[in-house]
From TrEMBL:
UniProt protein name: Phosphoenolpyruvate guanylyltransferase
The protein's enzyme class: transferase
Ligand binding (phosphoenolpyruvate): 143, 159, 162
Catalytic activity: phosphoenolpyruvate + GTP + H(+) = enolpyruvoyl-2-diphospho-5'-guanosine + diphosphate
Function: Guanylyltransferase that catalyzes the activation of phosphoenolpyruvate (PEP) as enolpyruvoyl-2-diphospho-5'-guanosine, via the condensation of PEP with GTP. It is involved in the biosynthesis of coenzyme F420, a hydride carrier cofactor.
UniProt similarity note: Belongs to the CofC family.
PANTHER family according to UniProt: 2-PHOSPHO-L-LACTATE GUANYLYLTRANSFERASE (PTHR40392:SF1)
Keyword Amino-acid biosynthesis tagged: no
Organism this protein belongs to: Kribbella flavida (strain DSM 17836 / JCM 10339 / NBRC 14399)
HAMAP family per the UniProt record, alphabetical: CofC (MF_02114)
Keywords from the named record: GTP-binding, Nucleotide-binding, Nucleotidyltransferase, Transferase
């Protein structure tokens, strides 16, 4: 990662305990769903750390396996002390980011972007010139990234209909065409199929190879 002169953003990435994460993948991946959730987070963090505009990545999680993965990659882990939901976890992480890197902007990033490309994240962060900016997800109703300039409160409003909620709060949607990997969060099997078409990271690819092996009978596991 570059120094602050060219890396003005601190990213906060919240990760649920993988035992309960990505429940909508359970029907298609009943046995590998936790491993997929963990892999999504690992690939997202690795890609984020590869952006030239990212100074540090703070991962808010209570999952020890995820904590080990992201620490090894170079991220910092913050315990989800509020334990009260996604927006509360982001507020907690943003407060920690401001306390340590007050001169940097803070961006909240979804943890389920297994196809994320560092260059696309860099392009999006470079386009965040408003006080608060956000990236709308592929379906057009959610948010994959919310960025607040230094000195501006993050004010996350993730959840159902978060794109409209963020826009109503004054955040400006980024109008970029060339960031498909940043818009492709994964909640369903169809989402994952699209992410695979874009090209998923190595951790997700490894899990999917296990799923394929199970489906073709080369393992003693059921997918």
């Amino acid at each position: 990662m570059a120094d602050l002169q060219v890396a003005p953003w601190t990213l906060v990435i919240p990760v649920k305990r993988t035992a309960i994460a990505k429940s909508r993948l359970a029907a298609a991946y009943p046995q590998h769903r936790p491993e997929l959730a963990r892999a999504f987070a690992a690939d997202t963090v690795a890609a984020a750390l590869g952006s030239a505009l990212v100074r540090a990545v703070l991962v808010v999680t209570d999952d020890p396996l995820v904590a080990g993965d992201v620490t090894e990659a170079g991220a910092r882990v913050i315990a989800d002390l509020p334990g009260a939901g996604l927006n509360e976890a982001l507020e907690h992480g943003a407060a920690a980011a401001v306390a340590e890197f007050g001169e940097s902007g803070v961006a909240a990033l979804s943890a389920d972007l297994p196809a994320l490309r560092p260059a696309e994240l860099t392009a999006a962060l470079a386009a965040c010139t408003a006080a608060r900016s956000f990236v709308i997800d592929q379906p057009g109703t959610g948010t994959t990234m919310l960025a607040a300039a230094a000195g501006v409160a993050l004010d996350p409003r993730f959840g159902v209909g978060s794109a409209l909620a963020h826009q109503a709060s004054g955040a400006v949607p980024l109008e970029l065409e060339s960031i498909p990997s940043l818009r492709r969060d994964v909640d369903t099997a169809a989402d994952l199929a699209h992410a695979v078409q874009l090209g998923v990271g190595p951790r997700t690819a490894d899990v999917l190879s296990l799923v394929l092996g199970a489906a073709t009978g080369s393992e003693g596991l059921a997918c």
